[in-house]
Amino acid sequence: MSGSSQCPHLDFSFQINVARFEDDTIKQADITGKCINCDKPLVFFCDLPMGVSWTHPTLSSDAQELRLPVVVLGDEVDEAKPRPSFSVREIR
Predict the structure, then answer these.
(1) By CB count within 10 A, which of 8, 71, 73, 74 is most buried?
(2) C-alpha atoms less than 13 angstroms from C-alpha of 59 in its C-beta half-sphere
(3) Which residues contact 12 (CB under 8 A, 6 or more apart)?
(4) Contact 60, 68 (CB under 8 A)
C-alpha cells in the first residue's frame, strides 16, 4: 500500500489477554483490535465508562481496550468480597 493511499481497514485481528487475580474467581478479559493490512490500532469500543470494574464492561482511557469481567463456568463468586474498581468521568 502506498503512503498516499488510505487503508479501508477491512481485515481485523483481535487479541484477548486474561488477567487472573490470586484468590479470586473473577478474571478480566482485555480485548484489543488492529487492522491486519496496516497494523493500525482500531478504536471501535464506545459508549462504555472508562476504568476497571468487576461487575460491568469498561474501557481503557484511550478506548482501545475493552475490559470484561469474566467467570469460568462452575466457579462461584463471593459477592461480599471487596474488589478494587474505578471509573473516569469525562467532563466537557
Answers:
(1) 71
(2) 15
(3) 33, 34, 35, 36, 42
(4) no
pLDDT value at residue 46: 79
| Distance separating alpha carbons of residues 60 and 31, to the nearest angstrom | 10
Q: Are 38 and 9 in contact (CB under 8 A)?
A: yes
Distance, first Cα to last Cα, the chain = 38
Question: pTM for this structure?
Answer: 0.73
User: Is 77 within 8 Å of 26 (Cβ atoms)?
Assistant: yes
pLDDT of residue 21 exceeding 80: no
Closest CA to 25 of 82, 89, 77: 77
From CA 43, how far away is CA 77, in angstroms rounded? Answer: 32
Dihedral of CA 56/65/50/88: which sign? Answer: positive
Q: How far apart are CA 69 and CA 25, in angstroms?
A: 10
Residues in the chain: 92
Quick one: pLDDT at residue 76?
A: 80
